[in-house]
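Sanity check

After download, print the first record. It should look like this:
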Amino acid sequence: MQVAQKQPRPEKVAEVAEIRELLSAGSIVLTDFQGLNVKEISALRSKLREVGSGYRVVKNTLFRLAAAETPAAQLAENLVGPTGVVYTREDPVVAVKALEEFGKTAKPVKIKAGFVDGHILTAEQVQELAKIPPKQQLYAMVVGGLQSPITNLVGTLQSTLGQLVMTLQAVAEKKEAAAA
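Expected structure tokens:
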């Protein structure tokens, strides 16, 4: 007797597709939301939405199916217990900072692991991200660093030119006084 193979339910297939879409977001952080109630999870979602990120509770088996054959498949070892996914196409530093800020005002959310720019990060590495300034601030620091020597050079040249003009004017005045 042949055993008929069980077909996956359409809602499960759709959920796997949605998780696969999250994985393509660019940066994700796996969290353990145990101890948070629905109201707190909603508050967390709102906080993350403010910074262009999102939060989704996922089933570990469906996440494994979605991550299979992707670079994020290595995250499967961190899928123990309840799992929530912070996802963003924006700056991952801002999302992790928002997650930490939420933990200061409500119950802290335990970070399991992360996947940023194609690299798997440990919980400790993800927490270190929160200490880095956001991309826009880093860009400003680089531009400021590049601009500083140029500004100093312009100031030095203006000073030198000003001194030259004053010296030439003094020489001209001296010649006029000698000629008179």
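If your output differs, re-run the checksum step. Summary of this record's structure: DSSP finds six helices and five strands in the chain.
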